[in-house]
Amino acid sequence: MIEGAVSSYEKIKSKTSLREILEVACSFEASARDFYTDLIPKVGKNIRWLVEELAAEEQQHFDLLNGLASREDIAEQIKAEVRIPATDTRFSDAVQLPDLGAKPDDQAILQYAMGREQIAMEHYHSLAEGTEPGPIHDLFSYLADEETKHKAELEKVYYEVVHSGGV
Questions:
Q1: Burial 24-55 (b: 16+ CB within 10 A, else e)
Q2: Predicted TM-score (pTM) of this structure
Q3: pLDDT tens across 96-121, in order?
């Protein structure tokens, strides 16, 4: 009897609502937006455009997630329980931001941004795989693709800045 209770508890513990997932995702995107926005006046001109672009992209992702969470036509779907992806802890932890100091190094900024895009890409991909076809699945697929593109762009800029002496 206790074994059955433990396995049932483990099943419950391994799931969460889509609403909770969307709330964490909104926090993730908002923290990134705020981080990049605060960073804009601290970075050199050679990557300021990139940091401004990152802040705008994170705002767009926040708006998409927040908009989905507030749609009344899918309110029942958002209450649905889904399996917590293996990426959840890393994704949730990424809401905590590093202190890069008053004059952050371009390489440190790019490394942080690439790591964050990697975490988001993996997490949104896992969420897309774990949701039923529909607007929620479509949004997570879209965000996974967006984060993949962002990471590729950041890798290109990283190579130019770090390995080629600047953009």
A1: bbbbbbbbbbebbbebeeebeeebeebbeebb
A2: 0.78
A3: 777 777 888 888 888 888 998 999 99
